[in-house]
Amino acid sequence: MARIVMKFGGTSVGDIDRIKNVARRVKAEVDAGNEVAVVVSAMSGETNKLVAYCREIAPLHDAREYDAVVATGEQVTIGLLALALQEQGVNARSWMGWQIPIRTDGAHSKARITEIETDDLVRRMQDGQVAVVAGFQGIGPDNRVTTLGRGGSDTSAVALAAALKADICDIYTDVDGVYTTDPRIVAKARKLEKITYEEMLESASLGAKVLQVRSVEMAMKHGVRVQVRSSFSDAPGTIICDEEEIVEQELVSGIAYSRDEAKITLVKVADRPGVAAAIFGPLTDANINVDMIVQNVSHGGGATDMTFTVSKGDLDRAVKVLTEKKGELGYEDLWADANVVKVSVIGVGMRSHAGVAQTMFRALSAKGINIQVISTSEIKVSVLIAEEYTELAVRALHTAYGLDAA
What is the pTM assigned to this prediction? Predict the structure, then answer.
């Protein structure tokens, strides 16, 4: 017997037939003798509709009332799934975040989980009752409903699995696992049997949409084994686990890309101590996150160029902030480019092998793709290239590192 947390996203519970299908999957685990908690998202499209209502009625809405509205989508799903399970003869009860309770900080619309009180839940699960839990939500210090941000149901599921000391957290979605890259771009992409927490964290932060970044961080922190599986097939998925659990680690586990990038270059900035702080301080104050940064060698005459990336959604605000500070910063010109993409090679095998970056640069050069910016970490190399070369670059790198399926 195992203790399992099963999480189903919006597409998996998108209509009544799919909710009944989820109930059948849950019943199969119960019939196998397992203790089961289920975390569900709102039905597909519901959260977007609720967010649109808030924006329509009050563009600068109160975050507390926003949370009160958007958290209702999951309430509908948990009730329907509990009913579907009861119809199939399974003892089940629905739980909203505040009923457990799942306690969070007070950052409405982007709250972080601080504690989950599971004593009552564990007792009921041991008595054979399935707990159907609303993802994406909790209760703040002021006893008001909070939400965890988009994709937060993944985090809810992993946090609950950690609190319950579950044997595994199965994340059911519309893909059947984690692939070496996007199968829509590379037909020969392979599904991975296992991937390390670190690799999955890099992939999620660099553009892969399989799991929310915070859920992977939490799984790594608490050692929760996570499996990404398909809601629509019984095939085994991809296990996300400690590096020690993977017997033969590949040099590179995958190629990720992010189209949510924009590049800013400040031309002929004063080459003196403190200039970087003067540039990035106002951006930080405006809550604009800066990613890749390159400072060129001085032109002579005490001037240099500074290039960095921000998300596309922040580009206009970043340009506005920097334009307003032009006199103070003393740069000659500002160039902005939203037609870029970040492509990354990821793998814990890089730690012990040289030449990974060289393989990347050679493969892109062979396809005539110019690299604009480079950044590295212990287990990844990222480059910024023109957006029009995205698919060509991903395919070339996938082949260069021997990731193509036979």
Answer: 0.83
